[in-house]
């Protein structure tokens, strides 16, 4: 089984800006598969009125470096103007799959 790194970026959004933030994120990440060959899959998860997760799955650590830079483990990728939508700074975490058997 190939190890895939799951990156979860959590945004705590100002409720009155939630819909606009959602639209901005979807527009920004839509083209990522063509720009980042190491991106295996990605999705946006919503928990209105204030939580949005961007979940991306990466082939390797090097692919994450290519996307997020050398400090990919602890520094989120922040889009221009993103901070004005957020209640608190973006949080980022990483996971790998653990077999159930």
Any guess at the CATH architecture?
2-Layer Sandwich
CA(first)-CA(last) distance: 13 Å
CATH fold label: Alpha-Beta Plaits
Mean pLDDT: 96
Q: How many β-strands, per DSSP?
A: 4
Order of helices and strands: EHHEEHE
| H/I helix tally | 3
Helical amount among residues, as a percent range?
A: 10-25%
The major sheet is characterized as: 4 strands, antiparallel
Structural class: alpha+beta
Our count of domains comes out at 1
Strand order of the largest sheet: 2-3-1-4
Q: How large is the share of residues in beta strands?
A: 25-35%
Q: In CATH, what is the class?
A: Alpha Beta
Low-confidence stretches: none
Give the assembly state of these chains: single chain
Cα Rg: 14 Å
Shape: globular
What does this protein look like?
- 24% of the residues lie in helices and 31% in strands.
- A hairpin with a 3-residue loop joins strand 2 and strand 3 (51-58).
- It has helices spanning 18-29, 32-35, 61-68, and strands spanning 5-12, 39-47, 51-58, 91-96.
- Strands 2-3-1-4 form a 4-stranded antiparallel sheet.
- By secondary structure, the protein is of the alpha+beta class.
- The longest helix is centred in the N-terminal third of the chain and has 12 residues, at 18-29.
Keywords:
globular, single chain, alpha+beta, 101 residues, 3 helices, 4-stranded antiparallel β-sheet, Alpha-Beta Plaits
